[in-house]
Amino acid sequence: MRIGQVSKKYQISVDNLYYYINYGLLVPPRPGGQYVFDSQTLKDLELVLELKEMNFSLKEIHRILSLYRISGLAVNQDVEDLRRIYTDKLHDLRSEKLRTEKNIENLERKIADLSALLPDNRPDIGLPVRMLDHLCCPACGGSFSLDNVRMDLKYIFSGSLRCSCGYTASIEDGILLTPNKNKDLYDTPDLDRKLYRDLPPALISLFQRSFNWMVEKLEHMDLSGKVVLETYINAWFFLHNHQQYLDPQGQYIVVDKYPEMLRMYKTLMEKQGYGLDILFIADSSTRLPLKPGCIDLNIDYFAVNEHNFYHNTFLYDELMPYFSSEALLLGTYFYFDHGKKSMENLLREYPTSSTDNFNLDYFLRHMADTIVQQEDCGFTTSSGVNIGFSFHHEGEKMYLRSYLARL
Length: 407
What we know:
By secondary structure, the protein is of the alpha/beta class. It is built from 11 helices and 12 strands. The chain has helices at about 5-10, 15-25, 40-55, 60-70, 75-115, 200-220, 260-270, 305-310, 315-320, 340-350, 360-365, and strands at about 125-130, 145-150, 155-160, 170, 175, 225-230, 250-255, 275-280, 295-300, 325-335, 370-380, 395-405. Helix 4 (about 60-70) runs antiparallel to helix 5 (about 75-115).
């Protein structure tokens, strides 16, 4: 048989056949300069394919073929050698079988765990009724009346909020929607979380260092009965991945300008099943429908930076009316060290950005004497190719500094 016919019959590529020939596994006759696969060569090929199916390496197969070729197994020692080769492989396959069965069990368990996160009949979580006490009209400070409410004993799922001054808001899918809708032209809701894609492992490790520092501070706080706020979650969202460290007796407020981002994260947090009382507010401003002095802890993971993408004001100056007199500020600030080109890129991509964004002196000046602890988590000179840090110029240092401040 010619090599093309062999390729078709045994479903093996011509390139592979040539490779086996060059390796010495197959030794077909070559009359007239063309390979001809005689009965012995075909027998060798069938043995090669059989042994490959049993996970023998080409080196091992070559050794087995050599034993046949040298003596035809007429010598007892060659029989013993081949028997030992097969016995060793049988031992390997049995060990591999045990590993495979163990890995199958692990994968089945992981699949079952993930399946538990998929939508089921768990009831939706709405606006917690007990958090109504924290709401008031941002226009006049008056109280709200509720109309057309759909609720149960714990949650409000839909309805209208009205103030006598004319201010109105609504509750849809358990999310409070204010009239302050987003009008920014340089941002979009990142529902596919493209911010996280293609981040270099070194940068993700840097994030984890800052997460670890913040979590360690959280674990030393008594959040029972306290109100915790996090804003600008379209950029990064700390509370979402750290619910296990939060006190179930605490109350949590999450704010973003995109209702669709809040819906996405609300669904994810419902699936995680920690049962926290969370008030989701869709508002593109810092004039929130919250009572003055109601916030005991503010979480900032890139929120101060994100605010400066679209405003020249300092985020905490804007949120100050909502903080209690002893409020804590826990966060991580991103800044450049000699990041001239990065800032030029940033201002070109985001013309509304403050020129003081990513500026440590600016941040520390506004924080004045409030910082009680801080940690330099390190820096990166490469943020990868992604929309999150598209402005970061390769080679310039971007630092992460975690901090705890007390008003």
